[in-house]
Amino acid sequence: MCWGAFCTDQGDGPIGSSLNYDAPSDNVKTARYTKTCATPNNRCNGGNSDANSCDEYPFKVTSDADIEDGVSRCVPVTENNSQGGTLGQFTKNLASGTQFDVIFLNPNSADFCQYPPNCVNKNNLIWQNGGPAPPPKTNPSRKRHYYMTESGKEVLSERELYPGKKFSSVETDAIEPTEKGELGRRAVIDDSHVVEDSIAYHLFTL
Asked: How large is the C-alpha radius of gyration of the chain?
């Protein structure tokens, strides 16, 4: 996700981290997933256990996924199921047309969210338009704002936030590694819970 949010262009391109939920049908979600993951099936099938499931960005439940420059990455199926279930819990009560911002928890532990900023593709795991995504021709100009939350967690946001700004996240327990056998579908997470937090103070901006 951090590649899509911060590394895809020079700051005025189509992805970023502000996305638009459009309550798509199953057919639309499958078509979006197939396009971004570049094969009739999960392009990562048969890979090593740390890279056997195709994770798309922008998410297939957003209208932003209709762009031609979507990116995907081969990730562990457990990670992909967890993210998909978490996203499903977050969006299940959203009205179609709702815009939301993606913020990144513990950014220094995730590729392309780390500081100092780094948009060098690793092992060709990020794909764009069916092939390895090249690094930006110039350093992306999207700002990276790092904050500490009231609960003591570090977060990264493309959008500038302020102390007291509230946000919600969804946390889940560990899940079983299964793709459920259907293209574009992920395991449903029933034990998720919403966690409320707020911004305590600004750390730095890059």
From this structure: 16
Cα distance between residue 61 and residue 79, in whole Å: 18
The residues pairing with 197 across neighbouring beta strands, listed in sequence order, are 167
25 Cβ contact partners less than 8 Å away, ≥ 6 residues apart: none
Give the predicted TM-score (pTM) of the model. 0.81
> Phi then psi for 82, rounded to 5 degrees?
-65, -45
Q: How many residues does the chain have?
A: 206
Q: Quote the CA–CA distance of 88 and 174 in Å, as a whole number.
A: 16
pLDDT per position as a tens digit, 170-197: 665 544 444 443 444 444 444 566 788 9
Residue with tokens 């199921």: 81
Q: Judge contact between 160 and 188, C-beta under 8 A.
A: no
User: Is 75 within 8 Å of 55 (Cβ atoms)?
Assistant: yes
Contact present, 74 and 52 (Cβ < 8 Å): yes
Number of neighbouring beta carbons within 10 Å of residue 140: 20
CA atoms within a 13 Å half-sphere pointing along the CA-CB vector of 191: 6
